[in-house]
Specification:
Elements lengths: L25 H13 L10 H10 L3
Length: 61
């Protein structure tokens, strides 16, 4: 059994990325690809903790 939000299916908030990821840590990998390779400048979220954690780790503005 996988723990965390995605381990339980992720619910409504993860349904757009659920086919691509199934572990909570993969959300950080997804953000890294979006920011570093795709060039996304911002992400809107109901729970900004993950995006804020990522931005603080990479020094994003």
């Amino acid at each position: 059994m996988v723990a965390g939000a995605l381990g339980a299916g992720g619910g409504y908030y993860y349904k757009s990325v659920r086919p691509a990821i199934d572990r909570d840590g993969e959300m950080l990998t997804l953000l890294d690809v979006l920011y570093g390779q795709v060039g996304v400048k911002g992400v809107f979220s109901e729970w900004p903790a993950t995006t804020t954690f990522y931005a603080n780790c990479v020094g994003a503005p």
